[in-house]
Amino acid sequence: MRTAPTRTASWLVPLLLVAALGACGPKSLKERTRHGEELTDEASTELDAAERALGKLEPDAAKEHLKEAREMLSHPNVELSAESEMQRERLKELEARVAPAREERARRELEAAVEKQRDSLMRAMDKVSTALEALERKEAGRSQVEAVLTAAEDAREQVREGKSLEARSEDYAASVRRTEQRLEQAVAKAQSTQQRLDFVAGPAADRQEAEALVKQAKAEKDPDKQLTLYTSARDRFQRCGETAKQLISKAPQLERSSIQVDGQATTPKAVISGCATKAGSLEKTVKKLEKAKAARDKKRAAAASKPPSKSKGR
């Protein structure tokens, strides 16, 4: 015997739907509220992390935490949390601090970079100052000149390494300009000393050699050897003047600078004048001796060409 299918009365369907909705409504709201509160708590944790990152001036890390917090607080269920509005306000405040934190970090990094560069440049300039002090001593020579030029080049290399900082720091750029002026002065000082050393080693040395030859010539008894010595002395005096003029043409300021020759102070201008005067005087002496030599040579030639005398027969 078949059982007849059960049929629900049509009037019961609406009642069942209403009952079902009534039963589910309060439960769904409770879950949504709990979920919203959980999201708010998680967002608060992210905001705490963002705030700590901002305190350490780590804007990129803070930005990531704020991004997570924003996504959480944008969920609809968060509206059911009592702290939602407070956390959203906090989010806005922290987001507003990101740009200033980034600027402050950049400022501090620049400040640290400039300070480090200043220290390096200061150490390099200390070496320049030490080299200049050695250059001021009386016994200063080419090695002291080279020390200044090397130290100055090292300092200039240090300036080049910090070139990018000049556009970012007006104060540092101004200090670099002052440093460059000091380096120019140091190099000019070294070059001036080198020029004086070159003069002493060149024209002044020629003059000393010429004067020594003159002394030898005066003491020489052989007229031919005396002529040779005077000729060599004249040539050195002439070379002294010519070389001196060449050096001064390259560095006009050298003409009146003070130099030490044989422990006595003089000037390149005085050396040129003295060499020219003595070269002119010796030119007369050499011509006179050459004339005398020509006469001697002529006499010798005449004597050599004279036929020998014949002996008388018995």
Keywords:
disordered N terminus, two-stranded antiparallel sheet, 314 residues, mainly alpha, rod-shaped
Structural write-up:
The structure is a single chain. Strands 1-2 form a two-stranded antiparallel sheet. The longest helix has 52 residues, at 84-135. The chain has helices at 12-55, 59-73, 84-135, 142-161, 163-166, 170-219, 223-250, 268-305, and strands at residues 259-261, 264-266. Among the domains are: 29-111; 191-303. The chain is an all-alpha fold. A hairpin with a 2-residue loop joins strand 1 and strand 2 (264-266). The chain is rod-shaped, with a radius of gyration of 51 Å. The relative contact order is 0.05. The protein has 8 helices and 2 strands.
The radius of gyration over CA amounts to: 51 Å
Q: Tally the helices: what do you get?
A: 8
Strand order of the largest sheet: 1-2
| Helicity, as a percent range | over 70%
Oligomerization category of the chains in this entry? single chain
Topology:
Blueprint: H1 12-55, H2 59-73, H3 84-135, H4 142-161, H5 163-166, H6 170-219, H7 223-250, E1 259-261, E2 264-266, H8 268-305
Antiparallel strand pairs: 1-2
Helix pairs in contact: 1-2, 1-3, 2-3, 3-4, 3-6, 4-6, 6-7, 6-8, 7-8
Give a quick summary of the entry.
The protein is mostly helical. The chain has helices at residues 12-55, 59-73, 84-135, 142-161, 163-166, 170-219, 223-250, 268-305, and strands spanning 259-261, 264-266.
